[in-house]
Amino acid sequence: MSRLVLKFGGTSVADMARIRSVAGHVKREIDAGHQVAVIVSAMAGATNQLVAWCREAAALHDAREYDAVVSSGEQVTAGLLAIVLEGMGVNARSWQGWQLPVLTSNAHGTARILDINGAELLKRFKERQEVAVVAGFQGIHKETGRITTLGRGGSDTSAVALAAAIAAERCDIYTDVDGVYTADPRVVPRARRLDRIAYEEMLELASLGAKVLQVRSVELGMVHNVRIFVRSSFVEAQDIDPHATPPGTLICGEEEIMEQQVVTGIAFSKDEAQISIRRVQDKPGVAAAIFGPLAEANINVDMIVQNVSADGATTDVTFTVPAADYQRATDVLVKAKPQVGYERVDGANDVAKISVIGIGMRSHAGVAAKAFKALAQKGINIRAITTSEIKFSLLIDANYTELAVRTLHSLYELDDK
Ligand code: ASP
Ligand code: MG
């Protein structure tokens, strides 16, 4: 017998029929003899509606009341699922964040989980084979006793944190896709579902905008070594063979991955803008004068490339920002011109960042060089390059995004046969 956490997102609990189907999955695991805690999201669209109402109530509203409102979506689905389970003859009880409790920081709207008390759940698993249905996304601040929420998509993090707290063998994330792919299947029709992916790789993918999991949930999984299994909630419970490994992707430690490929996946983002500052004075303090004001303006800077000075006096600095912040970033730099000292600012809004990820890069040389050659053969110009231990990213013209992603996908032998 093992202990499992099952998490169901908004589309998986979108209406009563979907909630019944979820209950079927829970019952299947109970019948197989497991102890089960479930984390639920709000019904699809419910949180958006609650957020919209807060804004309508007052454009500037108290974050404590925002949390009181937006946490309510999960309360509804937790209660409903418990009712449906009871109706199917499965012992179940719903739990709000404050009831366990899930203790968090005081950062309303983006709170961090500090501790979860799973003692009562464990007791009830043992004494009454009771399923715990826990509202995701929410917690309580220790000192003030106010309800907090974890940021959009936060119920993934609730699930992984709960799995750590009750030492679950696995945290199953049931969602509207059946796993993590080598690339976005809408762009690369020959993308493959990965059987396994290492935490670090998934962290890169999630940070690059793969929507499957909240970034923080992957971080937490890595820290606490929680095995996370991404699988589809659109398969009915009765269609699952209890003896076979279901389709899905296991996010786990490297040591659990036997067959190591050099490259695991390719991600891209079109929401990038490039800014180049020309003929910046090449002297100490200049980088601080550029990036300090951008940070103060809350603009996230990503790739940064500084050229070696040609004349010993000036250099060029290139970096990327989210496309939505392009204009604001340019304004900040114009204002900072006297402190920085440069000739002009150039920029481009129609650029894309392509990232190639794989822990195998640590032990293989020349992985990026192969990409440069392949892209050159397709006539794709590379505007900037950054590398880290398990990833390299290339900035290119957005028009070439699809071509570049497909080219690299074949190059690194990721195509489905
Ligand atoms: N319901 C919350 C949201 O929509 C939390 C979640 O679904 O993970 O962001
Ligand atoms: Mg989600």
Order the strands across the largest sheet as they lie in space: 3-6-2-1-9-11-12-10
Structural class: alpha/beta
Taking all residues together, what is the mean pLDDT?
Answer: 95
Tell me, briefly, the overall form: globular
Percentage of residues in DSSP E strands: 25-35%
Q: Strand count, sense and closure of the main sheet? A: 8 strands, mixed
Helix content: 25-40%
Bound molecules: aspartic acid, magnesium ion
**Uncertain spans, ≥5 residues at pLDDT below 50?**
none
Could you give the distance between the termini?
Answer: 37 Å
Q: How many helices? A: 13
Number of strands: 18
Radius of gyration: 24 Å
Structure overview:
- The protein is globular, with a radius of gyration of 24 Å.
- The protein has an eight-stranded mixed β-sheet, with helices on both faces.
- β14 and β15 form a beta hairpin.
- α1 (16-31) packs across α4.
- 33% of the residues lie in helices and 26% in strands.
- It is built from 13 helices and 18 strands.
- The protein has 417 residues and is of the alpha/beta class.
- The mean pLDDT is 95.
- It has helices at 16-31, 46-57, 63-70, 72-87, 119-128, 155-165, 199-207, 215-224, 286-296, 326-335, 337-340, 367-377, 401-411, and strands spanning 3-8, 35-40, 92-95, 102-104, 113-116, 131-135, 138-141, 147-149, 170-175, 196-198, 228-232, 249-252, 265-281, 304-306, 314-322, 344-357, 384-388, 391-397.
- The chain binds aspartic acid and magnesium ion.
- Aspartic acid binds next to α6.
Write the topology of this structure.
Elements lengths: L2 E6 L7 H16 L3 E6 L5 H12 L5 H8 L1 H16 L4 E4 L6 E3 L8 E4 L2 H10 L2 E5 L2 E4 L5 E3 L5 H11 L4 E6 L20 E3 H9 L7 H10 L3 E5 L16 E4 L12 E17 L4 H11 L7 E3 L7 E9 L3 H10 L1 H4 L3 E14 L9 H11 L6 E5 L2 E7 L3 H11 L6
Parallel strand pairs: 1-2, 1-9, 2-6, 3-6, 4-7, 9-11, 10-12
Antiparallel strand pairs: 4-5, 7-8, 11-12, 13-15, 13-16, 14-15, 16-18, 17-18
Helix pairs in contact: 1-4, 2-3, 6-8, 7-8, 12-13
